[in-house]
Amino acid sequence: MSNKFHQPVDAAKVPRFAGHATFMRLPAVDSAVGLDIALVGIPWDGGTTNRAGARHGPREVRNYSSLMRSTHHVFKIEPFKIANIADVGDVAVNPIDLMDGLRLIEEGIAEIVSAGAIPLSVGGDHLTTLPVLRAVAKSGPVGLIHFDAHSDTNDTYFGDNPYTHGTPFRRAIEERLLDPRRIVQIGIRGSTYSPDEHDWAVEQGVRIIYMEEFVRRGAEEVMAEVREIVGQNPAYVTFDIDSIDPSMAPGTGTPEIGGFTTREAQQMVRLLDGLNLVGADVVEVAPPFDLAGMTSIAGATMMFELMCILARQVDRNRQA
Ligand code: MN
Ligand code: MN
Description:
The chain has helices at 57-64, 79-82, 98-114, 129-136, 168-174, 199-204, 211-217, 219-230, 262-270, 294-319, and strands at 37-42, 85-90, 118-123, 142-147, 178-188, 207-210, 235-240, 277-283. It is of the alpha/beta class. The structure holds manganese (II) ion (MN) (2 copies).
């Protein structure tokens, strides 16, 4: 039972600024066997089209995740007591070969999935979510809750290159990893390359909730619709840190003003409680553009929020 689960380093014995940097100060383990939730880094930004640096995300998020404590103050749960969670390290990557990079990421996540654990990853640019979806959607298309300033459903870049962080969800729909009628994108904003940039996604059935609609309706109403659309079938959550306003999360490759506050982001993720999630990620934290660690803190905290939702799901399924 809970006394067998991995526990974070005791902050009363080793202060939170000391010791090895692992996600949430949990033990670093070699395999996901026996875990309910595997925290994993994907240090790869080979799909970046503008400011690079998200390859450095996992290491800095590990560092700042040491600020997380053991209890979620709204749910009143201790995630490490209701689910067995550990840091399984980083997947293997290839920084100079895009196709090999995608293959290695899929392999690394598939290993976690076949061990029976839920992957909660930190990227990496948003293209990393494509190979993750290839690993978690092996038995059929899943739904997607997608927080982002960008739809990431463009077709090609720089000629006919299909794999960039602006295209993962188009590829995932084409590969039938995602059911487009169960995809909701929240927070989309900013200038686009053309007036019809989002038409393809909308034609497939993707629900795009632009930032303007979010501001008009508010988090509770919007998330009620999200839960309705996604339903109880398996779904994946992807959190692009650029959905948060650059005043609160400047360390990212493609910042767009007019974004969510960190408080709105936390509120929305908590409202995902009760869904049937096969995995989640936080992507696009780019420490070279960060200030005072604020983006890595935001990323680590969103990871904590997602981890608590997943831990509650594990606990619920164990009781059932
Ligand atoms: Mn994105
Ligand atoms: Mn984005």
